[in-house]
Specification:
The complex is a heterodimer.
Chain A lengths: L3 E4 L2 E4 L2 E4 L2 E4 L2 E6 L2 E5 L7 H11 L7 E3 L5 H4 L2 H8 L3 E4 L13 E2 L5 E4 L2 E6 L11 E4 L4 E4 L24 H12 L8 H14 L4 E4 L5 E2 L3 H16 L5
Parallel strand pairs in A: 6-7, 7-8, 8-9, 13-14
Antiparallel strand pairs in A: 1-2, 2-5, 3-4, 5-6, 10-11, 11-12, 12-13, 14-15
Chain B lengths: L17 E5 L2 E6 L5 H10 L10 E2 L2 E7 L3 E4 L7 H12 L6 E3 L5 H4 L2 H7 L4 E5 L14 E3 L4 E3 L4 E3 L14 E3 L4 E5 L6 E2 L16 H11 L8 H14 L4 E4 L11 H17 L6
Parallel strand pairs in B: 5-6, 6-7, 7-8, 12-14
Antiparallel strand pairs in B: 1-2, 2-4, 3-13, 4-5, 9-10, 10-11, 11-12
Helix pairs in contact in B: 5-7, 6-7
Classes of the chains: A alpha/beta, B alpha/beta.
């Protein structure tokens, strides 16, 4: 299976990396736009050939017309040169950081708060409350109501649960996967006030109501499951912030 | 809140972006170009350390440590390979580069890693032990270091204390024990203006006050807006005790001598309180 449809022209191209306590997704998403296929992040060099093959298959060989980057961290941006070799010098829409410093001098820089048109599809550029690098941006696809996010909203999962959405992961261990992911990936959460983080996330979801939350490092979260995910996330943030009280 | 996309940077060339900063510690600086958006914000704040018309820089710093053996700490951004490699060749001469130590695999810090390793193929790559995804960064074969580790460079000794303030799991700070220098990576950064490039804080005429430190940290440590300030200030106070008398060699500011370092801890505590109250200042 090359890609899993989430509806609205959005497809999940999942890849995983094994860690001690489970698998971590290092995925990408394809978005069908009027003028070509948009790739959300480029994935890790670790999965380069598989991703290239699966994207070619999902796009009937046409490949990618543009990439929107959440940030330039290597597991998110590492395949850009190879994919440009495969499919030509398509446009790179960088996150809000300075493209020169991020090694992407040819990229178009986004600005938090703006709406960008990419290959005829509109994306709102958002300030992410759950990120590692300061230059990270999240984007909300207005047509499909999909919120593309990194690094937050991830979930470690067990081997064998790599291609199912969050709501279908067995409940036993699922909340722990949310906790483990955020504890290891966003170390600053040890200092956080969980209420401030959750309030910022709820405000974003209120304004940009998602049919899907599409994390790079976790399975997609359907609208019907967002409430349960947020409850697990709230518990996870509380445990990370006050590890000795739980 | 972010700078206009049109205000891109240019990279200065043709200047010797390096100097000896403390005995055995050589500083290689990438200033990039003028940060017009931040300069505007600084002027609007009424700060007196920045003169209108000057360029405002947020630098990337790498440090070359030369004892009997040599170690490079970070590699600047991909935009500055043309600064880093000639500086290394001039500083090292015929000597080998024995270690390349990465604070974290962030592009502006690790962007020239492969170029350095190609130029010095016998160099040992050193990476933080923390984190679980080293293979996603080509760091699976690196020498992993943590708080228990020390590398004796012969005349210089480096250790790898936990990065107290960090943006990613694979991350370490470094200290050099003979000069008592703490390499704080993204923490303790601040902008400088033209005329202050490659100067230590004791060599410039302007103050590095709370507002100047806030201009950097309110952007890079955006997460200060979500913290309990007392948790961060407690961690800072612990650092102030543990590293009393150590100077700072940050990745994005000017080096601060040890005799001047003590007040900076409280300045950073005030930065945290301000950002927690007012939100992030923008992005870099």
């Amino acid at each position: 299976m090359s890609a899993i449809s989430l509806g609205g022209g959005v497809f999940w191209v999942h890849e995983c990396f094994p860690e001690t306590d489970g698998h971590i997704h290092v995925s990408v998403y394809l978005v069908e736009a009027p003028e070509g296929a948009i790739l959300m992040d480029s994935g890790s060099f670790h999965h380069r050939q598989r991703l290239s093959d699966r994207i070619a298959d999902a796009t009937a060989g046409r490949g990618v017309g543009a990439i929107i980057l959440s940030h330039s961290d290597y597991p998110h941006s590492g395949n850009i040169p190879a994919f440009r070799g495969d499919w030509g010098d398509f446009e790179i829409i960088a996150s809000c950081g300075d493209p020169d410093l991020q090694g992407l001098p040819y990229a178009r820089r986004t600005k938090i708060g703006e709406v960008v048109d990419v290959l005829g599809r509109r994306f709102a550029v958002l300030d992410p409350p759950l990120a590692d690098r300061n230059h990270t941006t999240w984007v909300y696809d207005e047509a499909s109501r999909t919120l593309f996010v990194a690094d937050g909203f991830g979930t470690l999962h067990a081997s064998g649960a790599c291609d199912i959405d969050w709501g279908r992961i067995p409940e036993d261990g699922r909340a722990e996967g949310v906790h483990e992911f955020h504890a290891q990936t966003l170390p600053w959460l040890r200092y956080a006030d969980p209420n401030r983080v959750m309030d910022a996330l709820y405000a974003m979801l209120e304004r940009h109501h998602p049919a899907w939350i599409a994390p790079i490092h976790g399975p997609p979260i359907a609208e019907a499951d967002v409430g349960r995910y947020m409850a697990d996330l709230s518990d996870a943030l509380a445990r990370i912030a006050e590890p000795h009280r739980r | 809140m972010s700078e206009p996309a049109s205000e891109t940077m240019s990279v200065a060339t043709g200047r010797p972006w390096r100097r000896n900063v403390w005995p055995g510690i050589h500083w290689i600086q990438e200033c990039g170009g003028h940060r017009a958006g931040i300069a505007r914000a600084v002027l609007e704040s009424g700060a007196d350390w920045y003169a209108p018309g000057n360029e405002l820089h947020i630098p990337q710093n790498a440090y070359l440590l030369t004892g009997a053996r040599t170690l490079l700490w970070d590699t600047l951004s991909p935009a500055s390979g043309h600064i880093l490699l000639p500086a290394l060749e001039d500083l090292l001469g015929e000597r080998p580069l024995d270690y390349l130590a990465l604070s974290h695999p962030d592009v502006p810090h690790a962007g020239n890693t492969m170029q350095v390793l190609r130029r010095y193929p016998d160099c040992r790559l050193v990476a933080p032990a923390t984190g679980e995804t080293h293979a996603l960064y080509h760091l699976d074969d690196a020498m992993k270091v943590g708080p228990e580790d020390e590398i004796d460079l012969g005349g210089l000794r480096v250790r790898f204390p936990e990065a107290t303030f960090l943006d990613a799991a694979i991350h370490t700070w470094m200290s050099e024990e003979t000069t008592r220098t703490l390499f704080t990576v993204d923490w303790m950064g601040f902008p400088h203006q033209s005329g202050e490039c490659l100067r230590r804080t004791d060599e410039i005429d302007t103050a590095v006050d709370v507002g100047r430190l806030e201009e950097f940290h309110s952007r890079v440590m955006f997460w200060f807006q979500y913290v309990h300030p007392h948790k961060v200030t407690a961690a800072t106070d612990t650092l102030a005790v543990r590293f009393a008398g150590y100077g700072f060699a940050p990745a994005h500011g000017l080096p601060i001598p040890g005799e001047d370092a003590a007040p900076y801890y409280e300045r950073l505590n005030e930065v945290v309180r301000r950002v927690a109250a007012s939100g992030r200042g923008g992005v870099l």
